[in-house]
Amino acid sequence: MNGTQDLGLSPLVRIVDDDEDVRKSVEFVLRIAGMQSVLYADAESFLERDDFSRPGCAFIDIRMPGMNGMELQKAMQSRGITLPIAFLTGHGDIDMAVLAMKRGAADFIQKPSDPERLQETARKLIALDLKAVAKRSEVEEKRRIFETLTTREKEVAIAVSGGELNKVVAAELGVTEQTVKIHRANALRKLGCRSLVELSDFLRDIGETGRED
Hints:
By secondary structure, the protein is an alpha/beta fold. The chain folds into two domains: 12-135, 3-Layer(aba) Sandwich (Rossmann fold), CATH 3.40.50.2300; 148-205, Arc Repressor Mutant, subunit A (Orthogonal Bundle), CATH 1.10.10.10. The chain has nine helices and five strands, in the order E-H-E-H-E-H-E-H-E-H-H-H-H-H. It has helices spanning 20-31, 43-49, 69-78, 94-102, 115-146, 151-161, 166-173, 177-191, 196-205, and strands at residues 12-16, 37-40, 56-61, 85-89, 107-110. It has a five-stranded parallel sheet with strand order 2-1-3-4-5, sandwiched between helices. Helix 6 crosses helix 8. The longest helix has 32 residues, at 115-146. The N and C termini lie far apart (56 Å).
């Protein structure tokens, strides 16, 4: 592994390949394009030592001693590691690469790798991951705001976002219709939503959906 892993949360390309020449070659190609990378000779060290809080992507050799690339892909998925993957493949590995993409890999690149293709793929996957990281951060912030609601405000927000009328919600909760209107207004204000459509979108983003009859 090189010494680029302590550079904050800037994007990082992980290069996992048992061939040292390939690792260094890919690293060089990415470095001249202004991208930072970290090298691993096997899947096990990647899983043990990488800082997965950093955005970026991974170039992974599909055939390696020990845990191979597809096994590493499954291990990453089981651990909730969402880095986009591009597999580095030999000419005889196309079927495996296609299967890996069906299982969620973002791309595959044949060896010997074209420098421009490596750079283009890295940029694309980094952008993809940064977008995903931003979305997760947005959802976490929405969840945090949702938790500032009272229990009753949450119940009312979820119910009305699912299309239930105020009087129906009032009857279900055993309160007056005016009380429901107050909780509904408070929930919309706290969540920063201007309409029931925005409220529905907000709750869907955090996995809270309206009730369906």
